[in-house]
Amino acid sequence: MSGSRPPGGVVYISGLGRVCPRCAEPVASCRCAGQRAAAAASAKPRGDGVVRLRRETQQRGGKVVTVVDGVPLVGAELETLAKTLKQRCGTGGTLRDGVIELQGDQRDKVEPLLRERGFTVKRAGG
Fold first, then answer.
1. 68 has which bridge partners?
2. What is the set of domains in the chain, with CATH numbers?
3. Which residues pair with 53 in a beta bridge?
């Protein structure tokens, strides 16, 4: 199946094992992975620095969800904040595209937690 190979050609060499299709180096010493990690670390968070809390029910089968948007964090810091908010609210949730979603109307619990961490918080939408 020649159509299933990624661009760049070779993905395995007998003496080396798996090879990065971009730089043709062994995966263990791939130059591309370091560049991607450095780019992700230097990525700036989007938004204006104001964390917005809103309550949504659209396209969720009538279920209420609290959306925390505009958090000026990226990567592992954002994941840690999402985990902390879920634990402190005692509810489930997820992190999608830099937006934290918590099950239920948690705005009254989340707002003081974010203010404690030094964020400027604004309630958006009603």
1. 53, 100
2. 2-41 (no CATH), 50-123 (3.30.780.10)
3. 68, 123
